[in-house]
Design a protein that fits this description.
This protein has five helices and two strands; from the N terminus they run αβααβαα. The chain is mainly alpha-helical and 108 residues long. A two-stranded parallel ribbon has the order 1-2. It is globular. It binds a DNA duplex (13 and 13 nucleotides) through helix 2, helix 3 and strand 2.
Length: 108
DNA sequence: TCATTGGCTATCA
DNA sequence: CTGATAGCCAATG
């Protein structure tokens, strides 16, 4: 089947390793729509999310996706949950910001 | 099918 | 930081 926009977004997001983060813009670029950053956010918003009760196939670490400027952005489940998860992953959040230089996920 | 609206954004003034 | 603008997707009528 032809993977829709949403499917691609989720697929890429699932590839994000723990302790690393990505931005909406990067994902948009990987998909092929560099300007669809907003749509990417929407896709993640509608996605199942990161729940332990969910099967790994459906689990999407949307909390590892933040704004391109290093801000946290939003979260459907509550921004606090996102911060907690990221901290548990071993990353330090500086005043609601994350060091993209250190934790920015790069694909080869 | 089209028009409108809203949203986990990006970029610029 | 606020507004405005741009570009994209999904839901709604």
């Amino acid at each position: 089947m032809t993977p829709s926009f949403k499917e691609k977004v989720l697929r890429i997001t699932k590839k994000i390793p723990a302790g690393r983060i990505t931005t909406y813009k990067i994902i948009a670029r990987l998909i092929g729509r560099p300007k669809a950053c907003r749509a990417v956010g929407n896709a993640l918003n509608k996605s199942p999310g990161f729940a332990a009760s969910l099967p790994a196939s459906r689990r999407v670490p949307c909390h590892r996706v933040i704004n391109s400027n290093g801000q946290l952005g939003g979260y459907n489940d509550g921004l606090s949950a996102k911060i907690t998860l990221l901290k548990k992953e071993g990353m330090k959040i500086n005043k609601g910001k994350i060091d993209l230089k250190k934790f920015g996920w790069k694909i080869r």
